Amino acid sequence: MQLSPIANSIAPGREGHPAGVAFLLFLKGYMKALALGCLLPTENWVASVESCGKRAIALKHSDEAGVSIVASIEDMDSRAIALGDCFVKILKHVKRGDFLTFNGDALKNDNGFIVYTKDAYKWDPRPELSLAGNIKNKKHVIMLIEKYLKALCKQELDKDGIRGKGAFGDAFKSLTQSGAFPANLVGFGPGSTPAGDDWLAAYLTAMDAMLGEPGSAERSLRHKLRSALGRTNFSGKSLLMGCIEGCPPAYLARLALAAIKADEEEIAAAVKNALGHGASSGRDSMDGFIYALGNENT
Amino acid sequence: MKKISLKRGSYYDSVFLMLATRELKGIDGVKDAIVAMATPMNVELLKNLAYPEAEFEGLGPNDLLIAVDAENEEKADMAISKAYSALAEKKTASSRSGQTNAPTLAAAIKLEPEANLALISVPSSFAAREARKALEAGLHTMVFSDNVSIEDEIALKTYAVSKGLLLMGPDCGTAIINGKPLCFANDVRRGPIGIVAASGTGLQEISCLIDRYGQGISQAIGTGGRDLKNPAIGGMTSLLAIEALAQDPDTKVIVVIAKPPAAETAEKVVKALRKSHKPAVVHFLGAKPGRDEEKLAFAANLEEAAMLAALFAGGSKSTEEAKITAHSNETKERYKLPDRASIARLAAMEDAKLSLEQRWLRGLYTGGTLADEALFLAHEILGGVRSNNQTDPEWIMEDPTKSIGHCIIDLGDDFFTSGKPHPMIDPVARAERIDIEANDPETAVLLVDCVIGYGSHEDPAGILVPVIRSAKAKAAKRGGSLAVIASVTGTDSDPQKHGAQAAALEEAGAIVMPSNYRAALLAIEIAKLACSGGSR
């Protein structure tokens, strides 16, 4: 997969930079973005910092959808900005409640923190997904994903989620019986990104991967989801916005590419990588992915 | 008992929400709990679970809801309270920051792996070794320590340049990096002017004047006094710093201040500034200004350097335009700078109060560059001034503790500070020297600096005030008067506050000038009149 090698080749580090821009950026606390998500709003905007984590900072854009600042290309999504090694520095400069502004060339705050984005690589998984072909042996892929889910999942965290026997688990079962399924999952469930959104994101990604055309499958569902985006929170909204356009986050793109290749080693790595996302996001998305592959109608 | 609590506009990571849910569920008496985003689907779910509907009004998907089903209200309240405590703790932890002490550089790097700059202030015999370690760790390095050998400095700077890192120093006492004052530096506003300085108090004076002129500093990079002066070092740090500022989109104007560099190094500096394509101002203390170019201005003093930089930053298109503006009467009024005629009038008034035997200028400085600025000017105008900083061998003080004739003394020189704190940190030694000069009936004018800011004494004017009063009283008792001329290097944002320091000095009878240059001009003018008999 091309995403990681590109990241490695352009990741700024303390070694190997010629004197000049790079070292100055480093001196100033300036950061240079590695990559910008292909659906990141390019006009001037303001976003509030909603949370600061070790791998990502969640921003809420004025369009009420999320924008993420992430460390690694592995954590990219269509509305994210990847910083590479510089990510750790940003945590010193921003905190929850701050506002960041973007002017097309840079993301900055009032404390002098700046991320230059002008020369950043535009991250878009669609060309690679499109060229990769489509998933042919669905049963084999399902078997491999389930095999590694079983091996890797922390079952104890599942009981409060949509697979559990609590309120969310019961409601999920009920929603799957509805004629509105799966569109009725928007904004449903636990998690900072509602579990239903994770499920739907992976479902759409798998449907596209089976067709071999990102953004083409399930046109009717996509239309319904677009009109239902107001029913989820900002992080669910940005996730779904990307997937509706055939541009899933990197961990789902990786899983789709592995599934298209039907390579066990790559599927194992992709599942493991996906499970590292959020408390239950990765696991919830696996359910959506498997559901899409196993659905007779697909 | 089903109870709901809301936290509007709140966002917490998934792991936290899940753990919070589990923790609430684990509380004795709590049957069920949900901590989730208040999306319509989740609200619908809670309504279906018979949570009170009235609670859901006005909720949005970006709000957090905490729903608890407990045995009784007390248990429910306890669970909700616990959830809020966990949320508050989470928030505090995420915004917590502070200072951590580390016993070694390696430990500090481990504690702050994202740090990009190390400040080395250790006994000189260890300084080069620690600086090397910092550079090897990929850190820009500021070496406050002095007495590092030339060989070590060359080796460290060669290595730093090869890694694209700045080695500021050795003996670098001042820098402002990303708005953070390091060592002796002032709280100046941020702006488009970048400074490269091989002179500590020179950097402070210029940055403070720029602040006063309404402009600000992007970066102020100290290089260490030998960087440009010593041909073997060849300005390695200065050239790298100029290149950095040239590349910096936030720096619109570059200022270089240093004592006269070696000729070939000066040429390299000028070439680097030309290459930057940015307006630049150069001031080599004690050297004749070079030939101005369209966007490269040579300033005659620190004040002019600051003013030209501020004018370039303010939109002046060329050196010629900036210089015309800088020297126009309108500009002087704007910046409240007394012109030469005003200075002459002030000098005459002070001279008139002197007794016939009072003749000499005595400059007692805590800042080395400020002393140099006054010295070079006084030596040129008065025709012979002794100093421990003199470059003219005939006029180097044989014994810096004894003043003969006109003297300008740098009390921060190693001669005075060996085993003692620098007078900017502890100005008492200067106060004692003022007392000595006041006892000399031939002293006509006392010229002092007052450098405030981070690192400096908490109230240097407070130390000067009683001794100025006492000195003036002694002169008056002898039938004369002692002119005390001062300038305050600092800003009102500094902890000591420029205005307060200046007011205290004026209250004690000192004339406080708006810059060291103006203070020196006035003191020199008084001394000139005093030596010639003036109006008396």
In terms of structural class, how would the helical and strand content of chain B be classed?
alpha/beta
| Individual helix count of chain A | 12
The overall average pLDDT of chain B, rounded, is 89
Shape of chain B: elongated
Strand portion of chain A: 5-15%
Strand line-up of the largest beta sheet of chain A: 1-9-8-7-3-4-5-6-2-10
Neighbour order of strands in the largest sheet of chain B: 10-9-11-12-13
Number of strands of chain B: 18
Explained architecture:
The complex is a heterodimer of chains A (298) and B (536). Chain A has 298 residues and is an alpha/beta fold. Chain A is built from twelve helices and ten strands. Chain A is globular, with a radius of gyration of 19 Å. Chain A starts with a helix and ends with a helix. The N terminus of chain A is likely disordered. About 1% of the residues of chain B have low confidence. Chain B is α/β, with parallel strands linked by helices. The radius of gyration of chain B is 30 Å and the shape is elongated. In chain B, helix 1 runs antiparallel to helix 3, helix 14 crosses helix 20 and helix 15 runs parallel beside helix 20. The interface between A and B is large, with 61 and 54 residues.
Topology readout:
The complex is a heterodimer of chains A (298) and B (536).
Chain A lengths: L2 H8 L10 H8 L2 E2 L2 E3 L7 E8 L3 E6 L4 E5 L9 E3 L4 H7 L5 E4 L3 E3 L5 E3 L4 E3 L2 H7 L5 H15 L14 H10 L18 H17 L7 H10 L5 H11 L5 H12 L2 H12 L5 H14 L4
Parallel strand pairs in A: 1-9, 2-10, 5-6
Antiparallel strand pairs in A: 2-6, 3-4, 3-7, 4-5, 7-8, 8-9
Chain B lengths: L1 E6 L6 H12 L4 E8 L2 H9 L15 E7 L2 H23 L9 H7 L5 E4 L3 H13 L3 E4 L6 H13 L4 E2 L5 E4 L2 E4 L6 E8 L2 H13 L4 E6 L3 H4 L6 H12 L5 E6 L4 H14 L3 E5 L11 E3 L3 H12 L5 H9 L1 H7 L4 H13 L7 E6 L2 H15 L24 E4 L3 H4 L10 H11 L4 E9 L8 H18 L5 E7 L8 H10 L3 E3 L2 H17 L4
Parallel strand pairs in B: 4-5, 5-6, 9-10, 9-11, 11-12, 12-13, 14-15, 14-16, 16-17, 17-18
Antiparallel strand pairs in B: 1-3, 2-3, 7-8
Helix pairs in contact in B: 1-3, 5-6, 7-11, 9-10, 11-12, 14-20, 15-20, 17-18, 18-19
